[in-house]
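Hi, here's the filled form for the chain we discussed.

Project: internal
Contact: R.S.
Residues: 682
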Amino acid sequence: MKIQKNQIKGLSLHMIKRILLLCFFATLSLLVAGCQEKPQPDDRLQEYVDLWNKGKFDSMFSDYVNSSTKETFKKEDFVTRYKDIYKDLEVKDVKVSFEKPDKEVEWDKETKAEFPMTISFQTLAGEVSYEKEITLTKEKKDEDENWFVAWEPSFILPEMEKGDKVGVDSISAKRGEILDRNQQPLAINGEAFELGIVPKEFNDGDLDKLSKLIDLSSESIQSKLDQSWVKPEFFVPIKKIALSERPLALEVIELGGLYSKRVPAREYPYGEATAHLTGYIGKLTAEKLEKLKDKGYTAQSLMGLSGAEEVYEDQLRGKDGKQIYLKKQESEDLVTVVEQPVEDGKNISLTIDAEMQKKIYEQMKDEAGTAAALNPQTGEALALVSTPAYDPNEFVLGISSEKYKKLADDPTKPLRNRIPLAYSPGSTMKGITASVGLKSGKLDPNKIYDIQGKTWKKDESWGNYKVVRVFANESKVDLESALKFSDNIYFARVGMEMGTDTFIAGLKDFGFGEDIPFSYPMYKSQVSNDGKISKEVQLADSAFGQGEILMSIVHLASAYGGIINDGNMMKPRLLMDEEQEVWKKDLLTKEQADMMKTNLRKVVTEGIAGKASVEGKAIAGKTGTAEIKSEQGTTGTENGLFVSYDQNDPSMVLAMLLEDVQDAGGSTHTVQVAKKFYDSWK
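And the returned structure, exactly as it came back:
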């Protein structure tokens, strides 16, 4: 700008400053424009990769994909393809990265840039990780020059091309089987008969007859035939039945339009005898599925719903195999993207002797009760029985609502699993009380108590409460005679002399109040509802097995196992591969244990359990009657107990409890049921 002198004279100082300032900014703008960097491909790619890692597919396509790609793929195809595939394959943890060149490149002179890229992510079938070369091309848009990505479908999945279809295959894992100690099957992957109707061949007049044959209501059968997918020529599954019911299957298929076929099914060969022990498998409820969906369960999954099937679900279940593949457009070829191999569930062997379990069940099946047979030397559970029972095969194959209601309404409660429950031990507690007294030194086995009559109370502070004994013919009572004739008064007095602290401490030594270390869950045994004994009457009652004392049948068998095993109580175990371990040691000295064993034998040979005598066996044990009533002087129900073993073969102690025996002879009835087992066993 050229300014004449005479012009300057006419300008004010303010105007001169303004002109100079405008000149400065004009010059600065020219300098900045000349120094501004042009877009670099690596910076553009980094922005694109960041969007990819965040799942911003719309922006990836709109702002970063080159014109050639947009001519080949519509935005909807690009965005929808990414979103659908990532969703269907459960893609997560997407990690995309690329390598920049080792040396500087003058990108303004280039029209194309290539970078090695690594793509990885997790899918429902495992990790996918691969390398690709990505190309960026220089293009001009709206007078601006920039770099854009040349995209192809293989950026979604390796080797994917336009027109390829993505598929997923699932290979079901075989559930592990449950076997007994001798490898006899308790729960196996067997077969069942599936009965079905071909509608066009079926005579509606046979509906009622079929209903009676298969114990399924006519309405239930008709509802299956009315399903939307059914066509006249289709086989419509109606009911599954066990292979053992082959005669029924043959009778059913004599009806027109009825057919049967073999299908895979979980099978429980011992049926009711092991029902509560094994439990059964079935589909998950919606609530349970919601909690377990992150562990791979689906609406079609079967899982253990009770018993060992539930307890050992993680070992038995296995892991389904999955394969993600590409179906090529121009051929039948399948290209595997990633594959998760199937992992079948593990077989487990229980310590149970299935034939012993069956024998005990056969003697108890008409009663309500429970029994546990344990090896005192090893802690192995040889039998765990709950009666009455149900057939787990019916639950697996699809029990009818009518049959289930009948079981649920049965007053003997066959659906109740009594194995883990805690019951009053009654007079079987006396063997434990005696052991606690002997170990503490506060019970002299030779001390004779002078007991007159059938009742006793300490003094008038007990009010109307009295301890009552069954037999009054013994007036001079020591430990031996007290065990032989199950003398409540003797043990009440022993408990009083022992004192609350010693008694409770001794019971804790026997495992009362703590979790039973058994893989099959059990209720804890308790001294009382609050773990304390605050009154003398409660101490007296507890010492002979009444009060609030509760024990599970497994713990009762274990406790007597500790006496039989010279004072060492073994940890109960149900799995063959569990290590043998002492749970409680030094409960008695060897001499004290031998004395207790001698007395337990005399309970049978000279005392109240004489009906347990079995030819060829030296049965020893202790009876118990637990009275279930609201208060003294009233009538109630009785549970009869008998803990026994054969001293000629002390490798098994059997604890048995039968409910409601008051009209059947009390604990004597339980003794007789146990005798029947011993008579039939080997």
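Let me know if anything looks off before we file it.
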